[in-house]
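#help-structures
NK: newbie question, is this the right format to request a structure? protein is Lipase-like C-terminal domain-containing protein
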Amino acid sequence: MIRWWISTLQWIELFVSSLVHMAYGFYIFSTAVGGDLSQALSDWTFKPNVVVGLGEEVSKETTGVDDLPPIVLVHGIFGFGKGRLGGLSYFAGAELKDDRVFVPDLGSLTSIYDRARELFYYLKGGQVDYGEEHSRACGHSRFGRNYGEGHYPEWDEEHPIHFVGHSAGAQVVRVLQQMLADKAFEGYNNASPNWVLSITSLSGAFNGTTRTYLDGMQPEDGKSVKPISLLQLCRVGVILYDWFDVPWLKRYYNFGFDHFNMSRRNIGIWGLVNCLTGRSGPFASGDWILPDLTIQGSIRLNSHLHTFPDTYYFSYATKRTRQLMGVTVPSGIIGVHPLLFIRVLQMSQWRHPSDVTPPYKSYRDEDWWDNDGALNTISMTHPRFPVEHPSCLVVNDSECQPFQPGIWYYKIVEGDHILFIVNKERAGLQFDLIYDAIFERCRKHAFRKAPMLPNELHT
C-alpha cells in the first residue's frame, strides 16, 4: 500500500511539473510571437522612414566605444541570444545598459563543451570546429555554424573581454577560458587565458545541482536518465522537434543540436526510432547539458578548470530558502516563480540515496538544502569541488576594493533562479542595482591597464 501511494504521488508530481513547464514555455513563446506581431503591425501602420539600430550594431557608430572591452552576456539552459524568439530578451533588456554588449545565441541544451566552442567562433569568426576527437566520440559532425567574420575578430590578450554568464552560461565561460589556456583551438597558438578580463556569474552552475536528480538524472552515475521522469519527456520532445525540422520554427527557437543531423531529411523514420530508443543522438552519447549539471558531471569538469591569476571573478548566488526551527523551507510563496516553487521545496528536503555512493568524500545533504529552485546556493558562490578555489564573501563592495584578480568575490542574493532574466518587472529595483553594479565594475574596477573612457579618447 505504501509503495502504491509513493508511486501515485510521483506520477502526480510528474504530471504537475510537466504541465507547469509546458505552460511556461508556451507563455514565453506566445509572448515573443505577440511582441513580434505587435511590432510588425506598428511598423506597417506608421511606416517609419528612419531605421535605428539597437544592441550590437549601435557600438559600431558610437565614437570611442569600439576601444572599450566588450561585455558578452551568455545565457543558461533553455536560453536564447539576440535574434531568437523575436524581440524577446533573455537578459530582460540589460544589454541596453551599455553600448558595447554582445548576446550570443548558443545551443540551449547542448553540452558545456559544445557551447564553449560555439562561443569562441561567435566572437573570433569562422566555422565552429567541435574538434575531431570529440565529434567522433559523441557521434556528430565536426563542423557547425559559420559565423563569418565574427562579432569581435580582434579578440586577443591586448583586446580582452568581460563575460557575464547566467546559470550554465557561467560554466561555459570557464570552460572556454580553460580551452584558451590549453590552446585548444586549431590555428590560434597565441590563445591565452588572459583573453578573458573578467567573469561575472549570475546564479552560476559551478558545482552541479541536486535538481538534476529530481528531474530524472540517475544519482548513481550522473549520466543516465530515469525511464519515467521530466527529463525523459523533455528528451522525446526535443528529438521530435529536431526531427520534424520546421524551418521557421527552428529559426525562432533552436535547441542547438543541428550538428547531430537529426532532421527527418537526413535520418528518416528509422533514424528517429534509433534516437528515441537511445541508440543514437546527443542523449545516447551524453553530449548534452544535463550530465554536465549533475554534481558528478561538474566535478569531472572542474577537475580540469583553473582560476587564473590575471582574471577578475565575481558571482551572485541566489537563494529562496530560510531556516525555520532548524528546518530548511522556502522563504515565502509569492516571491517564488510558479515554475520553481515545487523544486525549491523538494531541493530543500533532498536526501542522497543511502544505497548510492556520495558524489564526493565529504558530502552532506544539509550543505545542499539552500537553493533558488534550480541550483543549490553552495554551487553558485564559487568553484568548490573537487578543489575549492580562492574566494571572498562580499557584504559591501567598498570593503573589497580595489578588487584583486584570481579571487572569486561572491554575494548571496535573495531571489529565485530566473529573477534577473526575461521579466525585468519581477526583480524590480534589484534588477537595475545588480546590472548597474556589474557594468560599472567592468568599466571602472576590472582592468589590467588604466581604462580609457570614450570622453578621454580624443583629448
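mod (FA): yep, format's fine, and the C-alpha cells are attached above. Confidence is low (pLDDT under 50) at residues 50-63, 453-459.
NK: thank you!
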